[in-house]
Design a protein that fits this description.
heterodimer; A: about 475 residues; alpha+beta; B: about 80 residues; mainly beta; four-stranded antiparallel β-sheet
């Protein structure tokens, strides 16, 4: 059933992105919003807008009943969840379908399978996709854990099964350290989460984060090559690019083929991303997890392949088969995306919501700015700090970096501090220019460059509300 | 004795507890020191402690747990 009216169950820049894709397909749009987002760009752009509750996400963007009621009242026939919020909530996907609506994404079953760390690892292993050597499930005893590390070797990471966001992680570099840390980790996990279950995984030091974009229609799957997102702060990506500057053609082929094999094995439908760790010294890659949704950094893939991923996922949700064959997907040039966040890099990335008193947006060939900003907009404090993404495309990586510097110089967000000075410093850095980095590279760099970042000129007319 | 107000230093979501399953930092009637934490403000997913800022006895909270607050909004009354 072709979609005629799409409800967007998200906010910010991705809501704007989805409205644009829908409009390009001739589909009407309904934007749901919290009271804090009444004046948002997405609300202004959509054909209709419906208030779904107070600012707190738990009472609005995570309120499944309110979103389903808005879909029914507006006679929308499909819901796009964007990323975050309900995008990877299997129960919501099932509720959308049970209400007779289309969920723009995979089946609830795929979301559930890939959301379960152990099940996802098993699915990967049976599709022949390498995973990080480690425990296949929870380890309840120190003896079982030690028997395992005898096979993986050191260093290893000890993680709480119930933990998340980096909490409860310990690194052991020898058997001695392991014997010392294991009981500590177990006691801490029990105290913090009421669950002493642990995972043990080999630590791949100096690894890069590389991910493969896939598109499936429930029968067939294609890949749209990879993105590298190794520049991260607190496990949040800050700079992403396509293609990866570190893959050889042979590894690229193996990696992308493995992603298609896994996505096919689960009959994947929609846009999805398989995340991997890549060790460029050994050429080995290891599957981490699959994100069953569109990702923040999807535009770099769009820029190098010319495929509109959001449009394709809406078409597929409407029942169309894949209309691009694998041999038609080609990479042209190089693309870089940087995240423009409402954070002050000079003050340890302090978030600073507030009013955008002036805005100049860069343009020109190969420059794209996906954002939720307009002049006079007040950024609310209730959601994440992403304001927008500056994306550039050029014939090769050095040209793309030069274009990024030019576009950053043209970008001016007045009234609030943003991460623009960070990206300007990164673009000038010799290691970044040479593509010499890994997932643990940026944090020490930020420490050693704190002085440079602190002297970056503030945005003009800066008024900080915090 | 004079009654004063404690103001939110930031805009965001106000929490009276360190975690959903933990007791409140302070209750009505509690005596607090200047450096005592009386709540948290979540701003763009980062959590910031709110200090009493003044010693005294809390009369009552003006903002509830999980209320959306503006910078400068009174969140508690305190007898000093």
């Amino acid at each position: 059933m072709a979609i005629k009216k799409l409800l967007i169950a998200n906010r910010g820049e991705i809501a704007v992105r989805i409205i644009r894709a829908a409009r390009d397909l001739g589909i009407a749009t309904v934007q749901v919003y919290s009271k804090a987002d009444k004046d948002s760009l997405a609300v202004r752009l959509a054909d209709e807008a419906i208030d779904i509750g107070p600012p707190q996400a738990s009472k609005s963007y995570l309120n499944q009943a309110a979103i389903l009621a808005a879909a029914q009242n507006s006679r929308a026939d499909a819901i796009h969840p964007g990323y975050g919020f309900l995008a990877e909530n299997a129960e919501f996907a099932a509720a959308v379908e049970a209400a007779g609506l289309v969920f723009v994404g995979p089946t609830a079953q795929s979301i559930r399978l890939m959301g379960d760390k152990v099940a996802a690892r098993e699915a990967a292993a049976s599709a022949g996709v390498p995973t990080v050597p480690g425990s296949q499930g929870r380890l309840e005893s120190a003896e079982a854990a030690f028997a395992l590390v005898e096979t993986t070797g050191f260093p290893v990471m000890i993680k709480a099964a119930a933990g998340g966001g980096g909490r409860g992680i310990r690194i052991a570099r020898s058997a001695e350290e392991f014997h010392h840390l294991m009981p500590q980790a177990q006691a801490e996990a029990l105290a913090a989460f009421g669950d002493g279950g642990l995972y043990v995984e080999k630590l791949i030091e100096g690894a890069r984060h590389i991910e493969v974009q896939v598109l499936g229609d429930g029968r067939d799957v294609i890949h749209c090559f990879e993105r590298e997102c190794s520049l991260q702060r607190r496990r949040q990506k800050v700079w992403e690019e396509a293609p990866s500057p570190s893959l050889t053609q042979a590894v690229r082929e193996k990696l992308c083929t493995s992603a298609v094999a896994l996505a096919k094995a689960v009959n994947y439908r929609g846009a999805g991303t398989l995340e991997y760790l890549y060790d460029d010294r050994t050429g080995e890659f290891y599957f981490l997890e699959m994100n069953t949704r569109i990702q923040v950094e999807h535009p770099v893939t769009e820029m190098v392949t010319g495929i509109d991923l959001v449009r394709e996922m809406i078409r597929i949700a409407g029942g169309e088969p894949l209309r691009i064959r694998q041999d038609e997907v080609r990479v042209g040039g190089h693309s870089i995306e940087v995240r423009i966040n409402a954070e002050d890099p000079a003050r340890n990335f302090l978030p600073n919501p507030g009013t955008v008193s002036g805005l100049s947006v860069p343009s020109g060939d190969g420059v794209r700015f996906d954002s939720m900003l307009y002049q006079g907009y007040t950024v609310p404090p209730f959601y994440d700090s992403l304001l927008g993404k500056l994306i550039v495309h050029d014939r090769d990586r050095p040209s793309a970096i030069r274009k990024l510097e030019r576009a950053l110089a043209e970008l001016s967000v007045e009234g609030i501090f943003t991460t623009k000075p960070l990206h300007q410093a990164l673009a000038r850095d010799a290691d970044v220019q040479a593509g010499r980095f890994h997932t643990a590279w940026l944090e020490p760099w930020l420490e050693s460059h704190a002085a440079t970042l602190a002297t970056a000129p503030p945005p003009s007319l800066a008024k900080v509300t915090s | 004795m004079a009654t004063q107000q404690i103001f939110s230093p930031l805009p965001g979501i106000f929490y009276r507890k360190p975690a959903p399953d933990k007791p409140v930092y302070k209750d009505d009637g509690d005596v607090v020191a200047e450096s005592d934490t009386i709540g948290l403000i979540e701003v763009m997913k980062s959590f910031n402690e709110v200090k009493a800022g003044i010693a005294g006895k809390i009369v009552r909270f003006l903002a509830e747990n999980e209320d959306a607050v503006m910078a400068g909004q009174p969140i508690a009354e305190i007898d000093v």
